[in-house]
Design a protein that fits this description.
single chain, Beta-Lactamase, 17 helices, 49% helix, Helix Hairpins, 6-stranded antiparallel beta sheet, 4 domains, elongated
Length: 650
């Protein structure tokens, strides 16, 4: 015994109406196709019959006009080419045949003797290749039709040459100029042009003349036959106007088809709607489970508030961050339990700014407290909360605990300060011998001046005026030694970075002054080019001096193997487009391409005893001043290091 499940029976019941409606639509389509095919066959048959009738009518009129031209030629053959009956006969012929533009009489040599109606110059606007038609008519002795040509203001025309014989000898031709447009206008009946568009085309498909009462839009049935006479490859092309004689029937059939299709579509849409609803419910359950798993796995806190500032949603990460549960937080109004009591006013001001839509787009930092009282730093990004209808219903915040990051940044800053101070001490250590020599000169001079003064005083015959110059020089040398010691002390002492408005020329000149003795020792010529007036920058003078000193010492060391006359250290200060530029160039060995990419990398050095931190610290100092440090080849040989600082405008 065979059993059917309820599910399969329900599917069969749903499919049967669809199959029935599909059969109705198919049979209706077959019926419409058969009717359309019969209409096309009838239309084609009528088109061919009508075109052939028009062609015969035009052929008859052309033949009749050619016969009238032959009678006129016989008259001129009997009475002579100057016959007085020509004007009357030609005028009558043109009046009865409006398609004839003009009648021309030529002698045996082809010269135009007479035209009707008369034309200025007696040329009559003739065919440019009339001579070929004239010669052919003389040769065969019968009427000859010439090729079509354009006549100004009259469209396409052609000539019909009929030979004239006097006593059996060729005496000339009588030619009629026929207008194709007038021929179609007067000899194609109105009923034909209501249904068809008739065109005369040449062998290349060019339309020479046309007649239609209704403009065609293309795409209809067409049929063409040869236009004989005049021949010359001319064709008659008839095209059916786009009309529908069975509009009511077609509209009714279309309505029935539309109703059938709408019934099929509605049944199918209903079935698809039920299936989609079931799929949507399943997708919603899946999406809810996925969203719940995603929210539980997030480490970023999520908090939603409505337009009044009430908490409407928190994720588990936010609850773990502050220590309160979702039940304790959802529905809470300011002040929130995780706000720091001593900073309640600032926190409330930020809360109100968010509700006004004035939250910083790059986020803002704030201090929160956990349930156990511990404080932590939070970085918050606020975004509008938009519902499914596009309405703004509140604000969604992403909350990140950045306490560890803040600690790391502080430690990094302290480490950077230590590195910078260590680099300055190393620089002073490397320059110790040079600075000792620099200090030895004023100290030796002081000792010499003091000994001289004591010797003069011991002699007992000294004049006070004689001791004044050496004592003044002694004081000058003491001040020089003190200045060197103060500069060294300022450079190496530990101090907090302090940006002040300073003249960049003074900073660079002071740093280069440290190296004057070492430059003389290395036989290096220092070319110092300072801008006038000096660019002014907001910078920490000691840190910028450290950068200049490091770069200039590197430049002098790079020229260790260069010939002495070529050891030139160029230090230039300039300003352009709001940026102060310092350029330190040497004429040394340059920087090999293989180390160029690693030059500013920490702990990378080209020196055997180098730490590899100098250029990295220099770049950090310049970037902390919102500047840029880079290097490029020196056109005179060697390398050039450049850095920029934002120029402070007065």
């Amino acid at each position: 015994m065979t059993s059917f499940s309820p599910l399969r029976s329900r599917d069969a019941i749903q499919v049967m109406p669809l199959l029935a409606m599909g059969m109705v639509v198919m049979l209706l389509g077959v019926l419409l196709w058969l009717l359309h095919r019969n209409e096309v066959e009838d239309e084609t048959r009528s088109l061919i019959q009508d075109v052939l009738w028009v062609e015969q009518n035009l052929h008859f009129n052309l033949t009749s006009n050619a016969e009238k031209l032959r009678h006129l030629a016989d008259l001129l053959g009997r009475e002579g080419l100057e016959s007085g009956a020509f004007p009357l006969q030609a005028g009558t012929m043109i009046a009865n045949a409006p398609e004839i533009e003009r009648i021309i009489v030529r002698d045996a040599g082809g010269t135009v003797l007479r035209t009707s109606p008369p034309a200025e110059g007696q040329d009559g606007g003739v065919d440019p290749v009339w001579h070929d038609t004239f010669t052919l008519a003389r040769t065969i002795g019968h009427p000859v039709y010439g090729p079509p040509f354009l006549l100004d203001g009259r469209g396409s025309v052609f000539e019909t040459h009929v030979p004239i014989f006097v006593s059996g000898r060729f005496a000339g031709t009588v030619a009629g100029i026929f207008s194709l447009d007038d021929m179609l206008t007067h000899h194609v009946p109105w009923w034909f042009t209501q249904t068809y568009r008739l065109e005369v085309i040449d062998g290349n498909g060019t339309v020479l003349a046309a007649k239609a009462q209704v403009p065609t839009t293309g795409g209809g049935l067409s049929y063409q036959v040869r236009f004989e006479p005049p021949g010359q490859g001319l064709q008659l092309l008839a095209t059916v106007h786009r009309v529908n004689p069975h509009l009511a029937r077609n509209v009714l059939a279309a309505a029935i088809l539309a109703l059938a299709l709408s019934a099929v579509w509605s049944l199918w849409a209903l079935r698809r709607h039920v299936m989609r609803r079931q799929q949507a419910e399943q997708a919603l359950r899946t999406e809810h489970a996925f969203r719940k798993a995603m929210e539980d796995s997030l480490t970023v806190g999520m908090r939603a508030r409505d337009l009044q500032g009430r908490i409407t949603y928190v994720n588990p990460a936010f609850c773990r961050m502050v220590g309160w549960s979702a039940d304790e937080l959802v529905g809470a109004m300011p002040p929130m339990p995780y706000w720091v009591p001593e900073d309640i006013e600032r926190t409330l001001a930020l809360h109100q700014a968010v509700l006004r839509g004035d939250a910083p787009p790059d986020g803002f930092e704030i201090v929160f407290r956990r349930k156990d009282g511990e404080r932590f730093h939070a970085l918050i990004y606020e975004a509008p909360l938009i519902d499914s209808d596009g309405r703004h219903t509140g604000w969604m915040a992403s909350v990140l605990d950045i306490t560890e990051r803040k600690h790391s940044e502080e430690m990094a800053r302290q480490q950077q300060d230590k590195l910078q101070r260590t680099a300055r001490l190393i620089t002073m250590g490397e320059m110790a011998s040079t600075l000792a020599h620099e200090l030895n000169q004023p100290l030796s001079a002081i000792a010499s001046y003091a000994t001289g003064c004591l010797n003069r005083l011991a002699a007992g015959d000294v004049d006070a005026a004689e001791l004044t110059p050496p004592i003044a020089k002694l004081g000058e040398q003491a001040r020089r030694a003190g200045k060197i010691i103060r500069r060294i002390h300022d450079f190496v002492r530990k101090s907090e970075p302090a940006a002040v408005n300073c003249a960049l020329n003074d900073v660079v000149e002071g740093a280069v002054g440290f190296l004057e003795a070492e430059a003389r020792k290395r036989c290096i010529h220092v070319d110092l080019d300072l801008d006038n007036p000096s660019p002014r920058v907001m910078a920490d003078r000691i840190l910028i001096e450290q950068v200049v000193l490091n770069l200039t010492r590197n430049a002098m060391e790079a020229m260790g193997q260069s010939p002495r006359p070529e050891r030139i250290l160029s230090v230039r200060v300039s300003a352009e487009d709001g940026q102060a530029l310092v350029r330190i160039a040497d004429t040394g060995c340059g920087i090999p391409p293989e180390v160029a990419d690693s030059l500013f990398t920490p702990f990378f050095s080209t020196k055997e005893d180098g730490m590899g931190m100098g250029l990295n610290i220099c770049r950090s100092i310049i970037e902390s001043h919102r500047g840029r440090l880079w290097f490029e080849p020196n056109p005179d040989g060697g390398s050039a290091f450049l850095f920029t600082l934002p120029e402070k405008r007065p």
